[in-house]
Each structure stands twice: as C-alpha cells, then as structure tokens.
Write a structure and sequence with these properties.
Layout (H helix, E strand, L loop, with lengths): L3 E5 L8 H14 L4 E5 L5 H13 L7 E4 L5 H9 L4 E5 L9 H5 L3 E6 L3 H16 L4 E5 L7 H11 L4 E2 L8 H8 L4 H4 L4 H17 L1
Parallel strand pairs: 1-4, 1-5, 2-3, 2-4, 5-6, 6-7
Helix pairs in contact: 1-2, 1-9
The chain binds adenosine-5'-diphosphate (ADP) and magnesium ion (MG).
Length: 212
C-alpha cells in the first residue's frame, strides 16, 4: 500500500489543529489504515491525548503509532513511522516559522483548519504561503463553524481565494470534540452516529480522496 503523510498546520493557535489531527487519525485507523501520529508541537497536546488513550486502552491495545519530533526532526521521524504504518498524521505548533518547513516538505497533503473570523483568515496566510512555496496541495477546513451565518460564508469565500481546496465538510462547534480529546478518544468512538462523528467521517473521506 502506498504510504501517506498528512500535516495539519495553521499559524493560529486554537484553530483546531490538534483536534483535527487526532480525529483524522482515529478515523483513518478505524478504516483499517495502519496509522501513526507525530507530535511536533513542544506543547505536546497530541502526545497528552495519546498517553490518555494508552491509559484507557492499554499500551498493547492502542491502535495508533506515536512519536514526537522537534520541527527539524519531522522528516526523519516520519520516515521511521512509515516503515510500519500506511499513514502518518503530523500535528504542528502555532507560529511555525521557517523551521517548520520539514513537516510541510514531507506532507502529501496539508490540512489547514480555520475558524470563521477575519483574523483567522489573515493568520492563515503564512501557512498557505509555505504550502505554495513547497508545492504542496492543501485543504482548508472550516472548524467551529456554525452553518448559515454570514461570517461562515465570508470566511469560506476568503479561504477559497487561497488557491487550494476547501473541504465541503465543515466541523461544527461541538462540546463533544473538547470532551473526547480530554479522554483520549475521537468523536467517532463516543457517539458513532452523532453530528460530530458524521462530520469527521465526511472530512476523512474528502482527505482520503486527496491522498489517494
Ligand atoms: N470543533 C470544535 N468544537 C468545539 N471545540 C473545539 C473544536 N475544535 C477545537 N476545539 C477546542 O478548541 C481548543 C483549541 O483546539 P486545538 O485543537 O487545541 O487547537 P490548536 O491545536 O490549533 O491550537 C481546544 O480546547 C479544543 O478542545
Ligand atoms: Mg495544538
């Protein structure tokens, strides 16, 4: 099977990088892909989530591979993970500068969560520029969005002008995302047919098409 790397990046903190990375990893793993996560954020939120997951499931039962890396080590650690995984999902720190390039260089697809606000659109620009500079396809995803508001529509229009793809799936502002992250699970594992799970599954399908 071909090996794939998805990097979740966004200069803005709090946009949902770690939440999207964890939920994509859980969903791809549930689809039968041998999936690993790589945390390159010194804050280590994805790592904390994963450790909680290990505590809940047991180290031998946990489905995901895991490593941490400094920004410059991302390429090497990804290669190591790809030796026995089909997919690596990389989480990145906010304010990722030039030193964050290895995580973009190694990606097949850059997933960019954006919350609906003009400030977040502005803050997204450096990430988009980096993806363009590296010639990487990217997928912007509206996160914490309420459908049918003018702000959501305006943000969608703005991110559409970045020149990449925009996910048809919007991720809603849902308490379940925060709750499940704290317990080491993904949204699809808690309320399998709830709205959060449906959104994650739909997003996973869109992402899968882009890395195929
Ligand atoms: N779709 C969502 N609905 C509700 N809360 C969310 C959603 N996405 C993220 N959050 C919450 O917002 C905060 C920031 O999310 P996080 O994934 O840590 O962002 P980042 O990694 O980009 O800094 C966290 O408290 C997280 O639980
Ligand atoms: Mg994070």
């Amino acid at each position: 099977m071909a090996r794939h790397v998805i990097t979740v990046a966004q200069q803005k903190g709090g946009a949902g990088k770690t939440t999207v990375a964890a939920n994509l990893a859980v969903a791809f793993s549930a689809n039968g892909m041998r999936t690993a996560i790589l945390d390159t954020d010194p804050q280590g939120s994805l790592g904390r989530w994963f450790m909680t997951r290990c505590d809940r499931m047991g180290d031998d039962e946990v489905d995901l591979g895991f490593r941490t890396a400094s920004a410059w080590g991302a390429r090497y650690e990804t290669r190591q993970l790809l030796r026995d995984h089909d997919l690596v999902v990389i989480d990145t720190p906010p304010k990722m500068g030039y030193d964050g390039r290895p995580a973009i260089e190694v990606a097949d697809l850059v997933v960019v969560p954006v919350t609906p606000s003009q400030i977040d659109v502005w803050a997204t620009e450096p990430t988009i520029e980096m993806a363009h500079a590296e010639g990487k396809p990217f997928l912007t995803v509206l996160n914490r969005a309420s459908a049918r508001t003018r702000l959501t529509a305006e943000t969608l229009k703005d991110i559409g002008e970045f020149g990449g793809q925009t996910a048809e799936t919007m991720i809603g502002d849902r308490v379940l995302f925060a709750e499940t992250m704290g317990t080491g699970y993904g949204a699809i594992e808690k309320r399998a047919n709830g709205p959060a799970a449906l959104e994650i599954r739909a997003l996973t399908e869109e992402v899968a098409k882009l890395i195929r």
